[in-house]
Amino acid sequence: MRHRVKKKKLGRPTEHRLLMLRNLVTDLMEHGKVVTTVARAKELRRLADKVITKGKQEDKVKAIREVLRIVTKKEVAYKVVNEIAPKYKDRNGGYTRLLHYDFRKGDAAPTAIVMLVEGKETEE
């Protein structure tokens, strides 16, 4: 039984699953959107929202360190803290949007587009 189990295993060992999700989050933050299967997209949404929330902290150094625990590229972590997170400072979650897209050629797996929701531009 799966009582109180919130994550999906995605048919992979733990280390592989975590690395795959970290790479997907890094690509999402770098490019703004990513196309993947629906099951991966739902898990990606959870992790991406956590990354942006960690990037919203007041202390920039701590925020970068927290984001680097998940994101695999240093320049992407700086982008999250300096560019992406300030757009969502007045928003409490729901930073990503999932759109069902098509079926993958080959195995007909349903795919989805995960993209960042347009946030307010901060004027300084």
UniProtKB/TrEMBL annotation:
<dbReference type="GO" id="GO:0006412">
    <property type="term" value="P:translation"/>
</dbReference>
<dbReference type="InterPro" id="IPR000456">
    <property type="entry name" value="Ribosomal_bL17"/>
</dbReference>
<protein>
    <recommendedName>
        <fullName>Large ribosomal subunit protein bL17</fullName>
    </recommendedName>
</protein>
<keyword id="KW-0687">Ribonucleoprotein</keyword>
<keyword id="KW-0689">Ribosomal protein</keyword>
<dbReference type="GO" id="GO:0022625">
    <property type="term" value="C:cytosolic large ribosomal subunit"/>
</dbReference>
<dbReference type="GO" id="GO:0003735">
    <property type="term" value="F:structural constituent of ribosome"/>
</dbReference>
<comment type="subunit">
    <text>Part of the 50S ribosomal subunit. Contacts protein L32.</text>
</comment>
<dbReference type="InterPro" id="IPR036373">
    <property type="entry name" value="Ribosomal_bL17_sf"/>
</dbReference>
<comment type="similarity">
    <text>Belongs to the bacterial ribosomal protein bL17 family.</text>
</comment>
<dbReference type="Pfam" id="PF01196">
    <property type="entry name" value="Ribosomal_L17"/>
</dbReference>
